[in-house]
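Incident log, structure service

09:12 report received: a user says their structure output differs between two submissions of the same chain.
09:20 pulled the input from the user's history:
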Amino acid sequence: MKNLVMKTSINSYDIFIGQNTIDRLNDFTENYDKILLLTNKTIGELYGQKILSNLPKKKTYVYKIEDGEIYKNMETSMEIFSFLIENNFSRNSLIICVGGGVVCDLGGFIASTFMRGLDFLQVPTSLLAQVDASIGGKVAINHSLGKNLIGSFKQPIGVIIDINFLKTLPLCQFKSGMGEVIKHSIIAKDKSYFNFLIESYRDILKLKPEVLIEMIYESCKIKKEFVEKDEFEKGDRAFLNLGHTYGHALETLFDYQHISHGEGVAKGILFEMQISKFLGFATEEYINSIKELFSLYKIDPTPIYIEEETLINVMKKDKKNTHDKIKFIIDKNGTLENMPISKEVISEVNHSFKNRILKGVIDIGTNSCRLFIAEIEKTDNKIEIITPLYKDLEVSRLGKNLNQTGVLSKESIEKTYYIIKRFKEKADSMGVTELIAFATAATREASNGSMFVQGIKNEFDINTLVIPGEIEAKLSFNGNSNIYREKIATIDVGGGSSEITIGDYNGIDYIKSFPIGVVKLTEMFFSDENYNEETLLSARNYLKGFFNELIKFEGNNFKIIGVAGTVTTNVSIVKKLPKFDEKEINGYVLTKMDLEENLYLFLSKTLEDRKKIIGLEPNRADVIIAGNLILLTLLDILNKNSITVSTVDNLEGGMVLNI
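09:34 re-ran on a clean worker, output below:
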């Protein structure tokens, strides 16, 4: 174990770094009347019993918050305040913060404000919290307009860093912590720590205990030196904010959900280094050395071009600014300076990253509209998805009654326009610079489809491509053929059509869009919820005839890949997922028996009861039976017993289209 002593104007406290250091918890509790163990649900489930075994049972209370930066806010704070009041906590009580940066920041904020101040102990469980959030006494919560805008300075009574917590830390969160670690190595005057991170990267990524302890110790030591020199951030402590002006702007734009703090800081460091280079200070060679260090830890530090007005407005709200000046940490050939930077320079540097942008794609389907936002890179007329950021879906029923009328109804168009408006507002708020849309079966088949598309252009200034079914199928296939390097057949059951594509990454052998989907089949056979033996048999026979030409592929050696809402919904039902979870769904093997059991479940319930099934979106409850009938028919014809579910579909394909 290693130990550092932080000396501040108010107190001194120990920072313990090692393995099994949480065994020291009880050493801090003797003089307090009550103890609040503040943690989040993930840490509570993983380590709750272990932590509680080191605390006095009679006077310890537990409060678990939801996971995520979005919960570091005033609403969560008020709920905790109420808990403390209801349980008669006093000024002689202690708060123990066990969690990542959110818990450390939030718990410290609660401690600094409840009854004008309680003692608190930091037990950081993420690498980011261990090297940053738990040390130095800056505590805060977020506002919707900016990060950490509401807070204070409040020093803990101690920090207990146990590297055993890192064994269960997701890789993305470990990389987030490494963003701050690398930042410390850059701002340190002695470059030995920078070199240590280069030389030890393999052992660090393997989580070798002695190397981790040394890394965290040195990182904390660097931060400690800045804090002790400038506790209330009037001077040099501001250098700890290297990368944070731009990084916090990205976090704010992304609603604190779609980029980790460390990833934002990494991009912010490169943004500030580029400013330094623009001003004639930092060299390309030095910037490249920083890029190489980030690459060792598989962290992408390339900034994203954001529309100037959006970027400037969110940066203006950063708490480090004064007199309406936007400040950055500038590297003047090895000497750091906290400088106000003009909008013109910010704009020039921002434009230098114009090949890396946020792009949004809207899929206007027969049954639903979907939005996908991703960070992409454009090179040599090619588009590569760097980081998927956001997905949304809303049922529109654009193709409702299209079979009978041949037109998109006024009601359906208005509802779809409302959804597109909401999607555009979301894209604008995140700083998306390129937003496109493509429309499928309902739009291409309706006699007023072109009028509907022109309305999208007039109302929202979004270019909409009406794509044939075969193109839609190809978009889904292309994304999956890059993942599954074998013979595959992608099945996309939509609202107005179903697409089948067979081939591999070398090419497509067969592709066809069949003009039958869940909405069409429902309207043709089950418009009055008349699911009986006769209508079900008629629908199955109709589908067999419709897909009859696929018999020639019966028994062929290929993997069935299912995309889009019908298959993903079936997985959600099998796994009883209360909300869509891409990690749980992507790659799941859905068997024929799963589909049949779900079908029997649907048929056993009325429409209103189907809407209550866990995993089934209420808006999909009236068409899900048709969807399962289509999937089961296709499996029968192709003589297959399962479908591998993929969340990669025509949205990803549309993202890499140059339109």
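09:41 both user submissions now match this output. Likely a transient worker issue. Closing.
09:42 reviewer note: The mean pLDDT is 92. DSSP finds 26 helices and 22 strands in the chain.
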